[in-house]
Structure of Dehydrogenase:
Amino acid sequence: MTLTGVVDDNLELARTIGMRLRVPFASHVDELLQNLAMPPEAALVAVPHSEYLSIVSSLAAARIHVIKEKPYAVSVDEARKLKKIVSSAGISLQVTLQRRFDPVYVNFSRLLSRISRIHAVEARYTMNVERLDEGWRASQLKAGGGALLDLGYHYVDLIVWYLGLPDLVSCQMAAGNRPGQDYDTEDTAFVQFAFKSADLSTNVMGSLVVSRVYPYHDESLQIYGTAGSVGVTRDQCELRSPDGTVLECLSPGGSRSQSLMDQLNTFVLNIRSDSINGTISSSYLEHIAFIDAAYRSAGMGAPASPHDSMHMLEG
């Protein structure tokens, strides 16, 4: 992989980085593309959520593959537009989901088969962000959502990856829990979800708590089955018997930077094999269906179906 240019809307920052790395720089994607002798094969995009659609559109018009920061999209409408852009241009668009390349989370997936029938799920992603009124994440217009769309996206991805799309989602959200700070995105979200068995005889019940105003940092996922449970944090995953005895504990070595490199290498292999170019991963669509149902539920004060959102995304 060779870096061919950098873009930032802060021209001085772009100039500083460009000169340090000895590559062309610009304050807008179109400007950089006009100044390059040959367009790059791919672009890594990390910008405020409101800017992704226009940037991806410009890159797709030049047939440039895209790997972008989460979320895939901020709404069903934007997700449909991105899907159409990718299909028309025949490019690959992939979202950075580093946990899918982290050995801890990969091992967790393997251990799930050891706990028999799953009946409950508990997920938490909380942290203490001192200033919620600073930067683009304070604005609904720029961010498209708050704690759930931003922090929660990682755990929505894990739920979808391990278990699929829930049948029902119920959500409550809160904002304004940093007195004296002006922001209009939710700082806390409590999400309940359920999977129904084919014969409707049993349910898998789940909960997800996401917050930017809790006093401590917590990233954890627990899945309970009739033959035990599996839990995962950023550092380890554990398999426990029904009485709580630890049967297996895995703490893979290596640095997180390796997971990032594995993700980039997979992106390169995918675009060069042409196997998924022009298509959007169904997982990305399921992320948006889950999150859209949560926001609809919070707005209505009643449960919502992610499958209704999924039908709109697939249409």
Q: What stands out?
A: Residues 71 and 150 are 7 Å apart (CA to CA). The first helix runs from residue 11 to 21.
